[in-house]
């Protein structure tokens, strides 16, 4: 009996004693904060193990020594003031003991003051953009795992899906402050070795910090489900000595100057169709294929096909504009700062001539430069007049009032449905799906939804103002009254809803007043 008891106690105590050596346990990391988090984790683990041993020990002892076969007779009592006090006070004391170190660690994690370096981290589908404050250095960091490995035609590498073309470089023994934001949806910048995990929300700035103790390469990932390629958004940080970091800064500034000179020289070059198509394919596969697919077919209802697309077949200027500036309210990003003029010219040429489009159009770097807003220089009179924020806000308010004052003709049901479908497929389909079925547990279905089939005023209010605490945005400032009227009419009459309701722009203006 004693031997069995010793074996049982050994099994109970061994896991917490060897927890630090277990491969599934939390790692200690390479920063002071990550060490504090690890120690806090171990303290809580030991407390939980002690409680478990005590509770289960009493239960097992009672079952063995007070079983019926031994003639045990249950005690007959009701209530006990001492027991009531004990099981209230003891857990309270335990929680206080756990809260003290937890509070200290949390306070330390939220103190980015007195930083030596500040870096802005911007997430976008599906890449990270890093900007070093006061150093005039910024770059994008993209997944560098070969497509062949992702498709399974080649063996997976050692750091499969955890490797990038441009890692974030940081010095050790320096306090680094991160400012996190996003260009589109919610992302989350997470590097376990630093104990840093902070959401990057569009329109907001979150703060975090770290001070790395050891040189090395540290990897992480986006830890927020941000879209179809969420798993292809890794983070790689190269921690180097202070001297090596200073050298890296000089090299980056030199590369930036050289790149600027090369980009300027490229404006005078004229590439052949073959050269543009070869380079354009490389740019497309690296930056566009994730959404529009390698064959240009897109994903119906989510990302449009480029095969025979009106945009691709239309005027070159419109094609260049959407690549340069993106399209608000969609996943189409602005590539003006991500790609050079030559790369944009090449990818536009490629898209206009691949997959049977065969437009015959060629676009050169000079065409991109002339189309880019950055190439425009203000006149002396424009540059000499400063504009204050109140003046901008007043002008914007006047424009809004002018738009609201426009009296639009009422549209027919067919016109509203046609326009509404276009607005829906551009702004709503990513969440609620082309068939209006939504994504159960994440985005509600619009088929026979109480909002859709209920009063029109509630539907208007939801679209115009959004719903706080959910992913439902406010479209009052993103869409015109006519577009809002059309999409509401479409949603109330599509997919079998068939309410028969028609909403006009005047109804939207009146509701918003």
UniProtKB/TrEMBL annotation:
The keyword Oxidoreductase applies. PROSITE patterns: COX2, COX2_CUA, COX2_TM, CYTC. Residues 1-19 form the signal peptide. Binds a copper A center. One of its GO terms (molecular function) is heme binding. Its cofactor is Cu cation. It is found in: Cell membrane; Membrane. Residues 365-384 have a biased composition (Low complexity). Its main location: membrane. Residues 18-113 form the Cytochrome oxidase subunit II transmembrane region profile domain. Pfam families: COX2, COX2_TM, Cytochrome_CBB3. Keywords: Copper, Electron transport, Heme, Iron, Membrane, Metal-binding, Oxidoreductase, Respiratory chain, Signal, Translocase, Transmembrane, Transmembrane helix, Transport. Its EC number is 7.1.1.9. Residues 364-384 are annotated as: Disordered. One of its GO terms (cellular component) is plasma membrane. Residues 275-355, 415-495 form the Cytochrome c domain. PANTHER family: CYTOCHROME C OXIDASE SUBUNIT 2 (PTHR22888:SF9), CYTOCHROME C OXIDASE, SUBUNIT II (PTHR22888). Belongs to the cytochrome c oxidase subunit 2 family. NCBIfam families: CoxB (TIGR02866). Subunits I and II form the functional core of the enzyme complex. Electrons originating in cytochrome c are transferred via heme a and Cu(A) to the binuclear center formed by heme a3 and Cu(B). This is Cytochrome c oxidase subunit 2.
